[in-house]
Design brief:
- 44% of the residues lie in helices and 24% in strands.
- The chain is built from five helices and five strands; from the N terminus they run E-H-H-E-E-H-H-H-E-E.
- Strand 2 and strand 3 form a beta hairpin.
- Helix 1 runs antiparallel to helix 2, helix 2 runs antiparallel to helix 5 and helix 4 runs antiparallel to helix 5.
- The protein starts with 9 loop residues before the first strand and ends in a 9-residue tail after the last strand.
Length: 167
């Protein structure tokens, strides 16, 4: 294992096998980590919720072992960047692309309400609310990077924004 110098104000990286039972534990750990790192329990709650949503997708749609989550806080820029990555198959990657495209533009509240209405009408047991919820509750910028079957989702949180949705 090689340690790297990191000049951010807080950094964490976890890699675990794709097991559903780990998600709640990882979420709790991240919530505590962000609470300490950010000195802001409300942002910690929102960011750990987003992490949990991404990890649920990563575990649910993984095609191989290994889910990685990392986060980097920069207090000068008042940002936090989170990366979740896993391997998936082409069919799931195409669904993911469409889902992210459907939530990254437009008013976050309107998109979330629309997605909730769609979820209520679905009969397949899938809600597809995660990304809309993340964007609505955190206003994070969502980016998707695909390299063959490696899926990388990056969230960029602007911690200087009003947290009126979180309060």
């Amino acid at each position: 294992m090689e340690l790297k110098k990191d000049f951010s104000d807080g950094f964490i990286e976890l890699v675990f096998g794709p097991r559903w039972t780990y998600i709640a534990t990882v979420r709790g750990f991240l919530q505590n980590f962000f609470s300490i790192t950010l000195s802001d329990s409300k942002w910690a709650d929102v960011i750990s919720m987003a992490a949990s949503e991404l990890l649920e997708n990563a575990v649910k749609y993984a095609s191989q072992d290994g889910t990685r989550i990392s986060a980097r806080h920069n207090s000068q820029e008042k940002t936090l960047e989170m990366l979740v990555e896993n391997y998936s198959d082409k069919k799931n990657i195409e669904v993911l692309k469409k889902e992210i495209e459907s939530v990254i533009k437009g008013d976050p509240e309107k998109i979330y309400l629309k997605k909730m209405q769609e979820a209520a009408l679905r009969t397949d047991g899938v809600s597809q609310l995660g990304f809309a919820r993340i964007r609505y509750e955190s206003n994070a910028e969502i980016k998707l990077e695909i390299n063959d079957d490696l899926v990388q989702i990056v969230l960029l949180f602007d911690l200087s924004e009003s947290r009126s949705r979180h309060e």
